[in-house]
């Protein structure tokens, strides 16, 4: 699996070394430091839980406020969004921001200088776990603003995942961890709460190619497409079935926590198309969830697909676009893709 020695390398030191090696510039370094600082603030709010008065729905009592996705917002969703917006407005490193919690992209206020990067984030992923004290997280993705654009609008964010220059997430679990890639491997940093610094704890995360563990919300089984029914059916039939081995299942319902487990010990995470989410294209969001996680997982030797296409090659058509997701151990993602291809081929030839 993972890791070479990390000595005592803080996130700041790691970023300075990446800058010296010419892999990132000063603006991208600042951007990552600012996001990391905002995540520390979110971590404190999440950690206070009920004592901080931050649990429960946003909005007025009995009338929860809704985001663009038509989902009820939690107080912590709104607070985390505000923390990230405020932290990133004034540094001069961004041309614009977009968030899962905002209808449209957010320009940098005129009073501040503009930079060349676009930042996208899901401020608090795994909202259904906030009130029950289960891990949640922040996911982010960084793109370059197209040349010559000074006022970034929604269309400028619509770049495939292969264009990302950085992606990461922070998981607020028993410990707070930041997992990051700038295209030179995927590295994990753990927050030293006493010192207030993210310290590198795994350099070069590496996902085993094969796995015996899958993550999916089984309660949706009857709504899945036929290839997904067949794929999971074969996983469940274990040693006696066509896959010839027994599989274990895990489902946290926080993508950050499920993907973190996969980056740590392998596995496949899937939120496939089902007849409930099909009209929207899937459940998870391409720009804020699927693409950044795909970049992190590919950089750790894993794979990510919609079941029919490499995730990072999907050309986005909307900021809040949703997609089916298969992500994790390379050979297992390839197996899931094979089930879809076999189904599609047999149906197109009829
Ligand atoms: P959110 O961004 O509104 O929190 O939704 C995304 C989350 C993922 O973290 C998780 O994998 C999935 O939704 C869980 O969905 P379900 O409750 O259908 O199992
Ligand atoms: Mg989310």
Automatic annotation (TrEMBL):
Keywords: Carbohydrate metabolism, Cytoplasm, Hydrolase, Magnesium, Metal-binding. Mg(2+) 1 binds at residues 100, 122, 124. GO terms for molecular function: fructose 1,6-bisphosphate 1-phosphatase activity. It is an enzyme of class 3 (hydrolase). It comes from Lysobacter niastensis. It is found in: Cytoplasm. This is Fructose-1,6-bisphosphatase class 1. It catalyses: beta-D-fructose 1,6-bisphosphate + H2O = beta-D-fructose 6-phosphate + phosphate. The gene is fbp. The lineage of its organism: Bacteria, Pseudomonadati, Pseudomonadota, Gammaproteobacteria, Lysobacterales.
């Amino acid at each position: 699996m993972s890791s070479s020695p990390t000595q005592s390398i803080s996130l700041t030191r790691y970023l300075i070394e990446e800058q010296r090696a010419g892999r990132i510039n000063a603006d991208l370094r600042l951007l990552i430091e600012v996001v990391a600082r905002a995540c520390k603030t979110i971590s404190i709010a999440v950690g206070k839980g009920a004592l901080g008065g931050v649990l429960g729905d946003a909005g007025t009592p009995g009338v929860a406020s809704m985001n663009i996705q038509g989902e009820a917002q939690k107080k912590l969703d709104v607070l985390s969004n505000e923390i990230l917006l405020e932290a990133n407005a004034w540094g001069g490193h961004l041309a614009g921001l977009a968030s899962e919690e905002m209808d449209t992209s957010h320009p940098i206020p005129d009073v501040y200088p503009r930079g060349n990067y676009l930042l996208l984030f899901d401020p608090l992923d795994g909202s259904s776990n906030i009130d029950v004290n289960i891990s949640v997280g922040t996911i982010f993705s960084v793109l370059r603003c197209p040349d010559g654009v000074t006022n970034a609008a929604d269309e400028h964010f619509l770049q495939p995942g292969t264009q990302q220059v950085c992606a990461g997430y922070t998981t607020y679990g028993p410990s707070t961890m930041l997992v990051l890639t700038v295209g030179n491997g995927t590295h994990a940093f753990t927050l030293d709460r006493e010192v207030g610094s993210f310290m590198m704890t795994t350099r070069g995360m590496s996902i085993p190619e094969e796995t015996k563990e899958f993550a999916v919300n089984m309660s949706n089984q009857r709504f899945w497409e036929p290839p997904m029914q067949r794929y999971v059916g074969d996983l469940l039939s274990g040693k006696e079935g066509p896959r010839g081995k027994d599989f274990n299942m895990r489902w946290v319902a926080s993508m950050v926590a499920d993907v973190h487990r996969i980056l740590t010990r392998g596995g496949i995470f899937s939120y496939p198309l089902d007849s409930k989410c099909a009209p929207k294209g899937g459940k998870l969001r391409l720009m804020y969830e699927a693409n950044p996680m795909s970049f992190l997982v590919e950089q750790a030797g894993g794979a990510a697909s919609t079941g029919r296409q490499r995730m990072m090659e999907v050309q986005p058509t909307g900021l809040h676009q949703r997609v089916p997701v298969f992500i994790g151990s390379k050979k297992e993602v390839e197996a899931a893709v094979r089930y879809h291809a076999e189904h599609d081929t047999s149906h197109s030839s009829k």
